[in-house]
Amino acid sequence: MSNLSPVIKSIQDVMRQDAGINGDAQRIEQMVWLLFLKVFDALEEELELTRDAYRSPIPEHLRWRSWAADAEGITGDALLDFVNNTLFPKLKNLPADAVRNPRGWVVRGVFEDANNFMKSGQLLRQVINKLGVIDFNRQAERHQFNDLYEKILRDLQSAGNAGEFYTPRAVTQFMVDMVNPQLGERVLDPATGTGGFLVCAIEHLRRQVKNTEQEALLQNSILGVEKKQLPHMLCVTNLLLHGVEVPSNIRHDNTLARPLREVTQADRVDVVLTNPPFGGIEEPGIEQGFPADVRTKETADLFLVLIKHILKANGRAALVLPDGTLFGEGVKTRIKEQLLAECNLHTIVRLPNGVFAPYTGIKTNLLFFTKGRPTTDVWYYEHPYPPGVKSYNKTKPIRIEEFDAEKAWWGDEADGFAARVENERAWKVGIDAIKAANYNLDQKNPHAPDAVSHDADELLRDYARLQGEAQELRDQLKSILAESLGARV
User: Fold this and answer.
1) Would you say residue 149 lies in a domain?
2) Whether residues 191 and 261 fall in one domain
């Protein structure tokens, strides 16, 4: 098959006729649990050919091949009854644990909060039959599905799931390239979403794999946690398609719910790559698991504390954070103070507006740091729009080639980035200046003093500052007038 897009579109068209499905998010969730079972079955076919003793964790009558593969098979009310009253209850309660039966653990984790929204067994059979034409055992089709999968993820974001932003592939690629994970290092995304950073890291690490032992090392070094059911399901399916045989290290959980004091040395990781949710507020009580001086309900701040804590000595992190974290005060100041004391925050790449459009207009930054020694200087790099581009959008997103200038400038942390030079886009700020600014990391480019900002928050801050200066001038004038009138009397 040359193009899978028409298949997915026709599946969504069938689902639109079903009274039980309401909106794009439900359509995608419905399609993904079906896709997961079909992908899982295709991968099991390969394992049955290559491993004599292979046994499926899914009971025979619940496997895709047993109830879905025959186009003339079970349909109508009988199919609906089977899915709702046999398939889902059994998969949600598979007897499995992460150590003895990791594949069963993965299946149960995917289905524990999944739903069958469809109410017509005939329409459900049509959807299943359309999925049947995709052959996940063909390498070309599997590769093609990866591109289609990214489209499904973008459709999910367009469905309006607040706070779950699709990180553009160019941004994840640049972050992974600069952090440069090595085979044998444990790589974590504590806010995995649909798995973009982990897939990028897998592709980066697989280029280093030369034998089956190294492949096994890679398979066990990819870790993730995702709070919401649908992104978790998407992530697990995504990793299966990218050759992770048993993605049992992708937990369906809230990373922040575990108190920091319970993190052991064995839990620590070499690399963290993530785009934590920002603008969100955690449920009451979550912050109690954090030290008293950095307690807050703001999700992005808690993730920054967690990442600093969970890294090994000399561990490396790259994460996306909004401008608000850079200039924020109060608890944010204490978090930044601790970060700079315990880690070398060596680089902040300032992204222009629109990188995450249309999901958010908030200005964002890429922070790169290494744990184990304090920050002495922070290098800033202001990422420009390409020539002729005034903003990004869905049809013209940021591209990996745009980061070539940063890559050429980057240098090596081992020699303290000695090769870096200041230019119209890059500048360095010493730790003393940052401390004097009360740990405000929102440091402006000194080479572009006349740059006009259109950022609403920045304009409001400037307005407030100007109002304050105007009031000071008025007070001075009043004082001068009062003195002069008093002298005349």
Assistant:
1) no
2) yes
Say how far residue 258 (Cα) sits from the centre of its chain: 19
Check residue 84 and report its DSSP letter.
Answer: I
Asked if residues 98 and 105 have their Cβ atoms less than 8 Å apart, the reply is yes
From 237, 245, 247, select the one nearest 150 (Cα to Cα): 237
Mean pLDDT, all residues of the chain:
87
| Distance in angstroms (rounded) separating the CA atoms of residues 403 and 384 | 10
Tokens 């400037």, residue located: 462
pTM of the model: 0.82
* 168 shares a domain with 122: no
> Three-class SS of residue 428?
strand
> Could you read off the pLDDT of 347-406 as tens digits, one per residue?
999 999 888 876 667 789 999 999 999 999 999 999 999 998 888 877 788 999 999 999
Same domain (yes/no): 242, 326: yes
Domain that holds residue 76: 5-138
**What is the number of domains present in the chain?**
3
Q: How many CB atoms lie within 10 A of CB 357?
A: 16
CA angle (264, 265, 270) in 5-degree steps: 125
- Pairwise CA distance, residues 407 & 224, whole Å: 27
* Residue 296 one-letter amino acid: T
Output the domain CATH number for residue 40: 1.20.1260.30
